[in-house]
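Dear colleague,

Thank you for sharing your sequence with our group. We've completed the structure prediction you requested, and as agreed, I am returning the results in plain text so they can be pasted directly into your records. Please verify that the sequence below matches your submission; if there's any discrepancy, let me know and we will rerun it promptly.
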Amino acid sequence: MLYSAAVAFPEERPRRLRSTPRLRSLVRETRLGPESLIYPLFVVPGRGVRKPISSLPGCFHLSADEAAREAREVEDLGIAGVILFGLPEHKDPRGSEAWAEDGVVQQAVRAIRSECRDLLVCTDVCLCEYTSHGHCGVVESGAVLNDPTLELLARMAVSHAAAGAHMVAPSDMMDGRIGAVRKALDARSFSEIAILSYAAKYASAFYGPFREAADSAPQFGDRTGYQMDPANVREALREVRLDVEEGADIVMVKPALPYLDVIRAVRQAVDRPVAAYNVSGEYAMVKAAAERGWVDERRIVKETLTSIRRAGADVILTYHAKDFARWT
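Please find the predicted structure tokens below.
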């Protein structure tokens, strides 16, 4: 085809750097590997238990021995670590099994540490899975009490550290809980234990599958009195700064995808590593659409996690971690 000399052609041609896979990889701005991911595990009483979780396809309720085997696979895939959520055998109003020496998470921590050499073991610190009412703190006369909850969270964190956890992750959203946990850990010679704070945790509709998986739905009311209003970002920055001042080593935004703007704002506001939780509802929607052939699961997972990374997350907690590692 002949082109007229009078036609103006572009002087800038960005497509030159998209012409081959090697070129595209060479100039890629956002990079993400398994070493930036943490994989959630749900641990239950018993032995030899590996029960599929219907709301989270590909995930399981695992006894401590099975959690250790799962963790070994996670480590072999190059994933940075796991975060443990416990489903106790018995619940009570104060969630007392949360800090029991032989609790499900404590057993799992010890089993995983004995099986894995380098895997980071992180534990969720919250009472909702352990209380009979399903709320994240002490309840009296229908109200979730902030200050009495702090002592229980601190006891829980210390028990996880004593079992061998490398990092604890308070997710309850009580005011002052990072300071309480840090003080308790330091007082018991666990000053090396890091705190991953659920600093900006929103009262989100994206938690539905998790609440089935963790058996943690509140028996009355909801969590809007302590989790954040989805409309607020300035408040998130306040929460993050308070947690940093109290001793948080990593601050997290949860959920991830509807809050990419919050992740970006947090990244710009603080000098701590930033984490984001690609939560159960986000995962379940991808799985459901992929099962029906509506989306290419591999491509959409890579795009999703890259977007979270691009927004500013240094660490991503995701149920996609094992699949992503296999595909990378």
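Summary note from our side: The first helix runs from residue 21 to 26.

Kind regards,
the structure core
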